[in-house]
Amino acid sequence: MQLDLNLLTALDALLEEGSVAGAAARLHVTAPAMSRSLGRIRRTTGDQILVRTGRTMTPTPYAIAVREQVHELLHQVRGVLAPSRELDPATLERTFTLRWHDSLVALSGPALLAAVRGQAPGVRLRFVAESSTDTPELRRGEVDLEANANRPSAPDIRAEHVGETRLVAVVRQGHPLTRARTVTAQQYAAAEHVTVSRRGNLSNAVDDALTRLGLTRRVVAAAPTEAAALEFARGTDLLITVPEITTRTAAAGLGLAVLPLPLELPPAPVYLSWHQRYDTDHAHAWLRALARTALATCGAS
C-alpha cells in the first residue's frame, strides 16, 4: 500500500473538528478538497469515519478507537521531519484542549487567552469541564493541559507545582460570624456548610481538621463548582469553604464576606499537568509557559 501522509493530517483534522468544513478551515483548504480527502480515507480504511446524524457529523466507532493513535502518529511524524524547527507562534495553527478547574478558568483563563491571541492568532483554546470521575484524556491525547489541585500519580503524566492558596470561609454580609471579632473553630463548626466537589463529596480535609479538634460540622449540600456553591450562601446562613484566590473577586461581586479559616490546614496547591509525549513539543512548551505566567500573574502563587 502506498501511504500518503497528507491523509494522516486530514484524518487528524477531521477527527479533531468533527466536520468537513471545520477540518478544511483548520488546514486552510477548500471544503471540496477536504471532502475528497475524506473519500480517499474511507476507501483506504474501509470505514466511513464520519457519518451524518441530523445536522452534524458523528465519528464511527473505528474513528473513535484510532483517534489517539492518529494524533500520536502525526505528532511523531512531525518530530521526525522537523525535530529542531524553531517555533513561530505568529504562524502556528493549532487547537489546544485545556481541562482546568472552573475557578482557575475564570481567574486566569482571560489572561491566558489574551496572551495567546497576542502572539498566535491562529491558535484556539478549548476549555472543557472537569469530569466527576478520573479520566485518561491526558494519556489519550484528548486533553493537552490540566490545571487543578490534584497531582497525578501516573508515571507518564508530568505535573508542575505552579502555585498555592489558602482556604477561606465565605458567608453573606450580616451573617452572625461577621459580627465576631475572631471566628473560633467551634463557631465555624456550628455553622451549616456546603462543600464544593465535582464528585458530590460531603466531606473533605476540613472535616479531618475538625476531627483532630474533637469537632464535627453539619454539611447540608455539595455543589459541583465554587460559583454554584457561592449562590447557596446568598440570602442564607450557609458557609462555604473555598480557595481565596479563586473566590475573593467573585464573592465581592455577589456581596459576600470572606473570613479567615480558624483551622490549621495546608494551602491548596495548583498543578499544571500534561502527558510526557509533549515534553519536547515546542508549541506545547510555549503554551505551558503562558499558562504558568497567567496563573502566577492572577494570584495562584
From TrEMBL:
SUPFAM superfamilies (alphabetical): Periplasmic binding protein-like II (SSF53850), Winged helix' DNA-binding domain (SSF46785)
Span of domain HTH lysR-type: 3-60
Transcription regulation found in the keyword field: yes
One Gene Ontology MF term: DNA binding
PROSITE patterns membership: HTH_LYSR
Alphabetical keyword list: DNA-binding, Transcription, Transcription regulation
Protein family membership: Belongs to the LysR transcriptional regulatory family.
Protein's recorded name: DNA-binding transcriptional LysR family regulator
Species annotation: Kitasatospora paracochleata
Taxonomic lineage: Bacteria, Bacillati, Actinomycetota, Actinomycetes, Kitasatosporales
